[in-house]
Amino acid sequence: MIGRLAVKGFDGRGVITEILEIDEERRRLQHKCDTDASELKKLSASIGMLMKQGKKDEAEAAKAEVARIKSETKGLQDRLAECEQKQTELLLTVPNLPCAAVPEGRSAEDNVVEVTGGKMPDLPEDALPHWDLARKYNIIDFDLGNKVTGAGFPFYVGKGARLQRALIQFFLDEAWKAGYVEVEPPFVVNEASGYGTGQLPDKEGQMYHVNLDNLYLIPTAEVPVTNIYRDVIIPEAELPKKNCAYSPCWRREAGSYGKDVRGLNRLHQFDKVEIVRIEKPENSYAALEEMKAHVQGLLEKLGLPWHILRLCGGDMSFTSAITFDFEVWSAAQKRWLEVSSVSNFETYQANRLKCRYRNADKKIQLCHTLNGSALALPRIVAALLENNQTPEGIIVPECLRKYTGFDIID
Questions:
Q1: Cα-atom radius of gyration of the chain, to the nearest Å?
Q2: Are the C-beta atoms of 246 and 270 separated by less than 8 Å?
Q3: Is this prediction's pTM over 0.85?
Q4: Which of 74, 84, 107, 359 has a C-alpha 20 to 30 A away from that of 117?
Q5: What is the sign, positive or negative, of the torsion defined by CA atoms of 41, 46, 48, 49?
């Protein structure tokens, strides 16, 4: 366990030792409380009998012993509650174990390119980046967004707004065809939901907090959709559960700066379609491959150059057991842009959520949870604008035209 945690750059020796020590104390206190409860039951039953037998002194002695044990038990229960609280707090600091297929590495530079596909566009040297194209064709207004809200909250205008809606509907329709049941979730969640999927504690301070109501704006539809199954025992015959959802997403993106935040590259509010699966453990890695194939199919239909990265331990999320990132080529920026992460969390989220299933033998087991972006819009839009620019205008991919009602942005 310590070795696998180290793949994520997490030194778990101290915290694991502390957790085990607290657990030993917790077990000792629990055993003492259980023993005392049993003794109290016996003493309480004997008092009435002693009184009937006229053994008043013995009955009074039993009453005194009951009072003493109750007083002692109160202190034990308080200490037990403290142990359980401390143990929970420590467990929340321990990330998910990366699976054996996760490569070692410290940062994005150590991620492994699995496969590359799609045709690279051949654009002239003076090809425009998407933020200039947005201004040229009046489809995204970054300045207006900055005026009304702030940086990272753009307005989509005219054909830009229709393109957004077209992509959302296309992604939802493709997910529906693949067997995902659509839900429209709330866009804010409570603390229990944040803890369930691992967004809380918010170590990086990336979530927007509605202080007055103690609610959180969702960073992804993963949070409300996966929490559908919090504290639920699913009959085995109902697995897998496959859901998709559109939502706006909010992320503070604290610490972001430079070229990575220009235009649509990094926003505080953006649109995304998410796919979520609840699986039996033995089926989850086959499900992961299906999800990867689904995202790959979307990118191929959009005609974008793509590749898939297997993330190294140091670049993975706190909660993931394994993650594959999809990136598309941004021709004018001459760089790869991440547009999707597809992850298997194995039992990590399910344990926090108490998301379980009952098998044919009536045994209750933890599920595996998985999710993926299918897809996030901003960088998809950036790549579509840049890669499909022509002297006449920006060509709309054929798969979107029935949704947009036009085939060129001019």
A1: 28
A2: no
A3: yes
A4: 107
A5: positive
